[in-house]
User: Which sequence fits this backbone?
């Protein structure tokens, strides 16, 4: 199946980038150095909007396109809102489902190893063409001297959790609130005023409601189900450079929804 027109990510990115660059133009040439940073931010936002747009479309088409009558859709919308996805992006995805679009996406997960074999990676996709997706992923791995593996070769060493991050420090109050709400709590950590909470992924929305009741004006920096590695590694030199390339290339693949890996120092500069 061929994709027509701009990709989902590019549509969102150009809209965001246009808005940000217009701000720079109005501020004057002195601020032109911000353009590159804005382009990077626009790309990240576009990827996030596309990701949630697809998830909402899939959830809406799996039942009725009404969150009050479709529990799966309601959960995705709540996560999208918590992650600052604009209301118009959410509405467009629901309207597309209501309009009987012939877009149909199926979930697919791929696993593999980075250069050297110490780094592991899991890629979650939503695809309407599995052959295209695996070809795109294989190209990313080949360009990064990485290796695609078989199902289960990596995921056994990861844990599926619900992850929440907020600016809050009262660990005891948070623990009491989550226990009272019967949330299956795994861990709470506080560092530099930022609280990270991990729960069973099925309890993510229940945890969100309990936190919102405890902190009415809470802002969720992160609220998502994710895969956390049981052990992290740190890469150096060429292995780190190649793994950074792999993650960057995967981020440019439209079908990729999420990338999980075990490299702690992924953002370190490489000479």
Assistant:
């Amino acid at each position: 199946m061929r994709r027509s027109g701009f990709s989902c990510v590019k549509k969102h990115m150009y809209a965001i980038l246009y808005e940000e660059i217009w701000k720079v133009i109005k501020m004057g040439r002195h601020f032109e150095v911000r353009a590159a940073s804005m382009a990077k931010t626009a790309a990240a936002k576009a990827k996030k909007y596309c990701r949630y747009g697809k998830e909402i479309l899939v959830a809406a088409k799996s039942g009725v396109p009404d969150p009050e009558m479709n529990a799966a859709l309601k959960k995705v919308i709540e996560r999208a809102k918590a992650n600052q996805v604009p209301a118009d992006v959410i509405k467009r995805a629901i309207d597309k489902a209501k309009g009987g679009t012939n877009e149909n996406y199926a979930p697919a997960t791929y696993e593999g190893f980075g250069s050297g074999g110490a780094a592991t990676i899991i890629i979650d996709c939503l695809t309407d063409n599995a052959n295209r997706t695996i070809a795109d992923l294989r190209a990313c791995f080949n360009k990064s001297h990485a290796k695609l593996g078989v199902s289960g070769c990596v995921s056994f060493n990861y844990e599926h959790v619900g992850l929440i991050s907020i600016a809050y420090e009262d660990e005891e109050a948070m623990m009491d609130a989550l226990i009272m709400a019967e949330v299956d709590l795994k861990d709470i950590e506080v560092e530099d005023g930022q609280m990270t909470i991990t729960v069973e992924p099925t309890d993510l929305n229940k945890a969100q409601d309990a936190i919102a009741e405890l902190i009415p004006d809470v802002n969720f920096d992160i609220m998502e189900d994710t895969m956390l590695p049981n052990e992290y590694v740190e890469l150096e030199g060429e292995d780190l450079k190649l793994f950074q390339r792999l993650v960057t290339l995967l981020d440019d693949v439209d079908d990729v929804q999420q990338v999980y890996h075990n490299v702690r120092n992924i953002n370190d500069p490489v000479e």
Observations:
- Residues 158-229 form a domain with the Alpha-Beta Plaits fold (CATH 3.30.70.980).
- The helical segments are 8-27, 34-61, 71-82, 87-98, 130-143, 171-180, 204-214, 237-251.
- The beta strands are 106-113, 120-127, 147-148, 158-167, 185-191, 194-199, 222-229, 256-261.
- The radius of gyration is 20 Å.
